[in-house]
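#structure-requests
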Amino acid sequence: QVQLVESGGGSVQPGGSLRLSCTASGSIPTRNTMGWYRQIPGKDRELVATMDTDGNFHVDDSVKGRFTISRDNAKNMVYLEMNKVRPADTAVYYCNIPTWDKQYWGQGTQVTVSS
């Protein structure tokens, strides 16, 4: 079992910044990929960014140039630095880590971008 706990969500004005954190614990694969997804009510959960233990990363085009993913392997943590946020970034953000047999998700953290 793997547990994921997100933090750092909240309300921010357009153009502002926010930093999300996620801590993983439990039976974490030595080599893994951790990522961030987001979901708006009534829509499918969508990928935001992922990074593996070697530092290889992927960032969705919708946030490229504005959001940065990073991680601290020693602490089993992954971060999402959100800059120049837009109202369209409003969503519940989920941390994710897949293992050999299932996908694990955090409880989600709400990000609201509004003036």
